[in-house]
Protein 1
Amino acid sequence: MARRLAAPLRRLGGVVFSVILTFLGLTAVTFVIGRFMPIDPVISIVGDKASTEVYDRVYKELGLDQPVVVQYATYLSKVVRGEFGNSVMTARPVLEDVWRVFPATMELASLALIIGVLVGVPMGVIAATNRGRVVDQIVRFMSLLGYSMPVFWLGLVGLLLFYAKLGWVEGPGRLDVAFDDMVPTITGLITIDAILAGEDEVFFNALGHLILPASILGYLSLAYIARMTRSFMLAQLEQEYILAALAKGLSPWRVVWVHALGNVWVQLITVVALTFGSLLEGAVLTETVFAWPGLGLYMKNSLFAADLNAVLGATLLIGTIYIFLNMLSDIVYTLVDPRAREPS
Amino acid sequence: MMDAPLLRVRNLSVTYPSDDGDFKAVRNVSFTLGRERLGIVGESGSGKSTTGRAIMGLARPPARVAADELVLGDIDLRTQSERQLRRLRGKRMAMVLQDPKYSLDPVMSVGQQIAETHRTHLNSSKAEAKAASLEMLNAVHIRDPERVYAMYPHQVSGGMGQRIMIAMMLIAGPELLIADEPTSALDVTVQSQVLSIMDELVRERGMGLILISHNLHLVSSFCDRVLVMYAGQIVEICDAGRLADAQHPYTRGLLAALPELGRRRHELPQLQRDPAWMDDIVTPLETTSVKGGA
């Protein structure tokens, strides 16, 4: 019994160790960025008209006279306790701000990822199984388009067409003003909260706001996921087990969608996890175009206001999410690939 | 009672179109197979594997397969639709591939892969398929079928993997088995074990077996008849026991290249190839010469 538990425990220990190490590296990076930013943290507090004595006092209070190592240790101990300082812009603790805006980004990125996977994976499979034919060309062209199209331009054109001209979707923002604060915040995802509260009208309004930016982000991730799926699938279709599966009389459909795709997933998990990470972080432009009150917009505003605490706090959060996603993909990996279930 | 032959092949050709003209991988191959063990030998690229795949209807695209006759039992394989062929594969004819490390799906348990053949052809329930699979694992001499059923391909050894492969291919009761280099990826110690299990099953079920191999020794000791291929065509067919009397210079050359125990030899004799063996040559192997124009 003890031996059976030893392997998973060692594995878990390894994961925890690597997470801690990555986190230390991440805080070091944000700390260094904080040092090298051409923003004087003292001046952003006292203002540029303060006297030298006041400046010096605050300088000491911030611990800037200490050796860098001590400063980093102080920073680290604060970060661990969740103290990122106050945001200059909102005058609230950064952590509180970030928690408030994060669900909006989460909602957007999740729907985008769902679109990206549900459409991108089948597209990649169909392209691979019809290699060189018209369907393949169409998929590859669409991928290329999604790859090379700037997201803010797509967003603007999308708004112009589907909101201003056709009126199929709602405009910028997460909700019409009339619906603001109509449902209690439980998960922070308005669509889910609306369902929980039983308010269909709020739900459909929120969905109307969500669908266009989510589709655009979904299209971008779809482009990447479809391309990767296609190339993974092409590699799998060359394998001997595909011939064996055909030789035992399975339908091409089953060979492709069960056997080959089962193996494609093993490789695809990392791609999907990283796509989700970049969706969470890379929504800055989309959120700006759609006035989406999420993490991206918060970061952009903080950056423009030289609000260092907020920027670093948000950066750290995104980094932590990346670490978490990697950990998650490691776990999902063992579910999909029996070879990963054993200690190496 | 005289048995009708299991498989009749007449003038089977497999052609790969390419920019430099067509490449004929298999040229006018004809033979019949009863409920016997037929060996196909030849060097790499002689077309022996392609012949096997063409019979299964699984020649690697974009191959063009043509034959005057390609009949399995009473079924003309040439006129079968893809869907009809699919019903024959696994059910009437099956194929064992070289290396179980690559020919089993790595993310599906071996039991499920065996059961899958059963369910596909016999329309069985999950429980029936599992019971039949366990029985089949037993038939290929796997000691603890329940445990092995749940294992994944990476957890089994090469010899066990190949026995699982055989189980997967024979569970729906085909009458023809094509084994393409079934032991060349295995350790020498388990080769004969796998062969004898295959032999046992083929005999018990009265099946026909085509054993494709480059190993002359193995084929001559295991099979009833041997068919020697060179450059896509059959150069000799003879009884396995009388291989020593083979006439064709290529076969003789192959035999001469076999090392023998108790005889010192420092150098392998060079196999002298005669272009005349390829009589009607259409293979443009030497088209790399510089062409004028363009």
Protein 2
Amino acid sequence: MKSKNERYIPVGSITYAIKAKKVLEKKGIRSYIIRDFEAAEGYGCGYVLKINGTDETVESVKNILIDEKIKFCEECGGK
Amino acid sequence: MIYFDNAATSYPKPHSVYKAIERALKRYGANPGRGGYKMSLDTSQKVYAAREAAAKFFGSGYAESVAFTQNCTYAINFVLKGLLKPGDHVVISDLEHNAVARPVYYMSKYNGVEYTVAQNESLWGDDDFEKKCVESFKKSIRKNTKLFAVVHASNVFGIKQPIKKLGELAKDNGIFMMSDAAQTAGTEDIDIKRDNIDFLCVPGHKGLYGAAGIGALITNKGNELTSIIQGGSGNRSLMYEQPDFMPDKFESGTINVSGAIALGEGITFVSENVKMIREKEYAIIKYIYKKLKEDPEIVLYTGCPEEETSVPILSFNIKGQSGEKTSSMLGNLGVATRGGYHCAALAHKKYGTDKSGTCRISPGAFNNFDEAERFIWKLKKIY
């Protein structure tokens, strides 16, 4: 069962998923790689970064991913 | 057996590489990038670690800049056929392996691509070898020149080419630079950013001490290439379009997982032992060179391999005997060498060995001086 604080950011590939997880770890943000086509909203490979946090957290994570040139779905990231 | 054929395939491999392959088959047996269960994700993590190791080793900076291929030749073909279009011109060197020469020739015959072999008037050991090499490329540039495709070091004679200077020349003229690092990946310090290499093609099974069946295309300019093989990549499954990003663009179908993981271990081994490997290989090849030089029955084609000018590879012949025959006779005495033409017609033509071929010796990380001495002793038994 999904918690209300879980957010999902679909990524372009498993390579980008792993890279994103590592980058976020270095910045103290814990994330999990899962494969969930529903959460992926039709984007990429079905791999999704699951994070716990608010809309602000999601925006912060997205900015990090952009800086690191990680392919992800910029429009996604909902609950 | 004395194994002096490391330029073909390094042998033996480090213990860590053997263990990595076994572990990969047993513990990381799932398909990476296809599943959401633990073993698939663990496998993907291991493959990613191998990408990171290669990216760090060759200075690309990004794990995704490493696309695993079947071997170095496949990586070269991805670049040549993904970049060059009808009417484009490519310059290659006069020491190229067939990995470059054949696809370029094929494309000139069937795809409307033009090519020039930059003829370096100088030979190994000439003071102006590097200068003349760069000049030969400069002279070969045309308005439609799109790529320099250059072997970093000759697989026959070990001669190093001034890859960094050629990269600068390419950059100054808006030309892409591809380096075939079949004989230098693992033995030479290569940094694709520093050396202006747009596309680096490496084998896994030679100086990086991985298994056969794995290589890599390392580039931060994958967007400049079209894919030449399309297929399943684990993503965008409902779309017919091939992914347009690295590394998925060049990794259709399941990759060689155990090969990739083992390659990562091989790169780690080389990274941790690069000084030892270089010193040992050069010491052995120099010792053998000096012994051969003293023998009037031996024909040599280059000077003593030095770090500045050569990789630790040496070609020789016994007077009046083909390289293939010498290699065969040595094989009967338990010495592994490579005889013949080494898939390198251009290099043999340049050095006048296109009739005889040569016998090539190439030491590796696990050879020793005792083997070098026994090699000399055994060589004298065959003539």
Protein 3
Amino acid sequence: MESLLLTEIKTFEDNRLALLGRAKEKYALVKGDQIVGVYDAKLDAIRQGYQMFGNVPFLVKLVTEVDIPLNFVTNYFD
Amino acid sequence: MPSFTIQTQNIESTGPLVEIHLAIDATLESVLKAQGKTIPNPVPVLAMIDTGATATVIREDLAQILGIKPVGQALVTTPSSAYVPCYEYLIRVLFPNGITVETTAISASMQGQPIQCLIGRDVLKHGVFIYTGYTNTFSLCF
């Protein structure tokens, strides 16, 4: 299944290095091929996304060198 | 400090289960109202408090029922899989006694499970979780 956020993830990856230089550990709000902004808090970034774009898919992602996976000791994902 | 306590017949067998409601975020609710769109009703689900879960998880069909779209994508690692991409959604968790927590939840199939939601440490970080096995009770305080 193709991700609904494929374009946004590519945009983030294309800009990851630049974002690391100015917004490490902040949250990037990405829509289409645009980095819309960076925010200190994840929920602030999401709320801004709702206000700007409405109820459509957009990407809020922590700016780090590598993605850190979420860990679960039980498996509900298969 | 708002709290609730639940007693079950056999907490060892069932785990700490609680009936909650899931709702859309307040900001999205305002946006939908401004657009003249219908606000989806909160959805009742059975949830388990899971201290082994980094994040809250919802069964994947619940996002469709609530009519919400993904606001992120996270990688998930479990004992049997690694770096599985999962959508993230902003939700409101409505616990008993009027306790409300907003958080981002990831969606998963949760196939064959009697529960539709895991309450993870992203929610527990705001409160106190007390599991008393010999009385088959647990409490959550915020």
Protein 4
Amino acid sequence: MAKHETPLLSQLETGPWPSFVSDIKREAESRAKNEKGIDYQIPVDACEDLLGVLELSYKHGRTHWKHGGIVGVFGYGGGVIGRYCDQPEQFPGVAHFHTMRVSQPAGKFYTTEYLKGLCDLWEFRGSGITNMHGSTGDIIFIGTTTPQLEEVFYELTHTFNQDLGGSGSNLRTPSDCVGQARCEFACYDTQAICHELTNYYQDELHRPAFPYKFKFKFDGCPNCCVASIARSDLSFIGTWRDEIRIDAEAVKAYVGGELKPNGGAHAGRDWGAFDIQKEVVDLCPTKCMRYADGKLEINNKECTRCMHCINVMPRALRIGNDRGVTILAGAKAPILDGAQMGTLIVPFMKAEAPYDDIKEKVIEPIWDWWMEEGKNRERLGELMKRQGLQRMIEVLGVDPDPRMVQEPRSNPYIFWKEDEVEGGWKRDINEFRKYHKR
Amino acid sequence: MDYEEAKVKITEQLTKKLKTKSKFYFNDLAKILEMKPREAKKIVNKLVENGVLEYWSSGSTSMYGMPGTGKQASAEHED
């Protein structure tokens, strides 16, 4: 029988979706039986108590957790989030129940053997409950006691060749899409740059000195599978600056029905024959495509990389050959000022190892500016809003570019300075009044 | 500024403010040291390494304090 009665939680299990309550109950049962004979290092009934405290929170309509604290591993200011229960007598198994963030492998590739190893470690030294993956992408270990933190960290670094992720006012664990490992749309090696910057900026990842959190995310193409444009302070999105490569034979094959559009993704229903005009050309947001006499043409200068045509006909249309990244800055979720999407700051840049241009001309100048002028708990996007995009452009030392404008009058950034204008601001007011009455 | 001088300055200033607060943002420390953030960070890292300062994190924001000060230490039964 369960240690605590949890009728409210049980109700959550009755919905049609998979329930975390069932998962925790299963883990609680498995710990109680202990068929593998594990020498559990935190209370065996941690999961039972976790359910108990959650039930109580539902009953009271308020939390019984306190989060934050001084706990961590030696030398690191992030990666561990202290969590304490404010009813420790009633729920001793979760009196101390810290979260550990483990850096995910680039592209979230790991073998099942590796995954089993991580889970075994966490059953032994933690609650056994994990979150694969947290919103930043980390592997989240949920719930352990203070003495286990260093032990888990030692095992992670020595046995699993893995590090803790970022939390607090740090660089958060950089995250990327699967990239060139599996995706033909990837315009640069997302995993390589993600891994390189994770290693290169170790100090920023582990020792907090930023005004607030800072996130990098890497998308291989404008499909933006990791949604870097909406979720990261600095978003790297793959693009190309030459032309979409057209395979005329494959276009014919799509039109003729030999190739299934969208990789056969909408095959569950009969949508009729593929209509290239209706399903591709007419849907182009910049109307830069034409299909006539069995020939598809693209005016590449007008293309805004929406990816629709490439997604529909991947065998016929391919990304260009001159590839690199577009960099956007300042996206964030709502806390102050509401959610913000990234603002374009670098239209195109090559992304080749060792990424010196990206490090020295983009990342570090932005950090220097934000660290000096950002207020406490101010995200980069808020600083950009406060001081203006023009200031951001000055920091980067780049020329304003029409592509930085979201839409006309939305984010005007060109304010001429007197020394930039021939003749300056001074004028002869009497001469002016001759032609312009008050 | 050398490490010893910085240590004295930080300890003095933080002790002075202890009555009103025990946790400080990184920027507060950089201001006390009158240094640019990147330079200040090198010293602050060392102060943490040597146990003069300790990290405090809410999970989203990080702060610095002197070990054993503030309510948190006793609340965590770790003082």
